[in-house]
Amino acid sequence: MENKKKKIGVLTSGGDAPGMNAAIRAVVRSALARGMEVVGVRHGYNGLIDGDIFDMNLRSVSEILHRGGTILYTARCKEFRTREGVLKAKDTCQKLGIDGLVVIGGDGSFRGARDLSLEGIPCVGLPGTIDNDISCSDYCIGFDTALNTAVEAVDRLRDTSQSHDRCNVVEIMGNGAGHLSLDCGIACGASAIWVNEVDFDVDVSIVQRILDTGKTGKHHFIVIVGEGITDVHSLARYIEERTGVESRATVLGHIQRGGSPTAKDRIMATQLGYHAVELLEQGIGNRVVVIRENHVVDFDILEALQMKKGIDRKLYEIARSINI
Ligand code: F6P
């Protein structure tokens, strides 16, 4: 009897990130090049539970390399956090003859990939989140694009900040992680960067700093605040009251998640997608493929989820000493 062709699926899960399409493209084309069949799963794990799945070919992924978002749609699937949900997904995979799955998303998505792997469907996770908070990976798909979007936006705010001698407080996404805020703060020369990972006293690190640097002739200030830390509008009012510097607040929000991926995101996504298919071809699952010290490597998902990743403290200190 002729050997059945291996069939793999690909889905995106969690918040979308620019470069996810590049990863999908890499997965589809690498798999086809190895003689495998590929299906796309829509709306994350929901599609696996509901059977919202379609065949993909070379042309299914044409003209998507440069596009933001995800052609597969994405979602955060509550049902998949239950064993029943995982078993439904397993059932779909078995019915459709899906031998393995590539899951592009954040750590919540990886938990699902681990659960399904443990049920006998090999899954490989790829880090895709603008938060850059996957501990085992130096880099996540989408981060570079989101960073450049945020930097461009803050540069624009700086123009008006300078013209009015104001303080502009900017909230940056990150879901509790400070990577995007810190890198944006460095790239924009922010007077203060407030992230969860450091002890922060508003009166010292913002108010006093504005008063002190004001004496050296500085009259406009950018303050970066990680999402979820405080209400930036109230903070702007507080800064104005305490310093006398007119202040405004901006929440950059989902604008950071859209747009055409940078070259870096496209290249990383392509490398990661290719490696994921190499693993699945060998029937290897329960792995995440990541970038570490400029190399593409893979880890056991559980091991990956247990790793810790802090912000770059040295970078934070550099910002504090020179953004004055
Ligand atoms: O994880 C990516 C992210 O954009 C976070 O930075 C943010 O906290 C969250 O997703 C927002 O999620 P939603 O799109 O569901 O509002």
Description:
It is built from eleven helices and eleven strands. With 324 residues, it is α/β, with parallel strands linked by helices. The chain has a seven-stranded mixed beta sheet, with helices on both faces. 51% of the residues are buried. 6-O-phosphono-beta-D-fructofuranose binds next to loops. The site of 6-O-phosphono-beta-D-fructofuranose has 10 residues, from loops.
Average pLDDT over all residues: 96
Overall 3D geometry?
Answer: elongated
Low-confidence runs of at least 5 consecutive residues: none
Biggest pleated-sheet summary: 7 strands, mixed
Bound ligands, each once = 6-O-phosphono-beta-D-fructofuranose
Q: Beta-strand level of the residues, as a percent range?
A: 15-25%
The termini sit apart by: 73 Å
Radius of gyration, in Å, reads 22 Å
Total count of strands: 11
User: What is the SS-derived class?
Assistant: alpha/beta
- Count, helices: 11
Query: Looking across the biggest beta sheet, what order are the strands in?
Result: 3-2-1-4-5-10-11
Order of helices and strands: EHEHEHEHEHEHEHEHEHEEHH
Q: What percent of residues adopt helix (DSSP H or I)?
A: 40-55%
Short recap of the structure:
The protein is an alpha/beta fold and 324 residues long. It starts with 6 loop residues before the first strand and ends with a helix. Bound molecules: 6-O-phosphono-beta-D-fructofuranose (F6P).
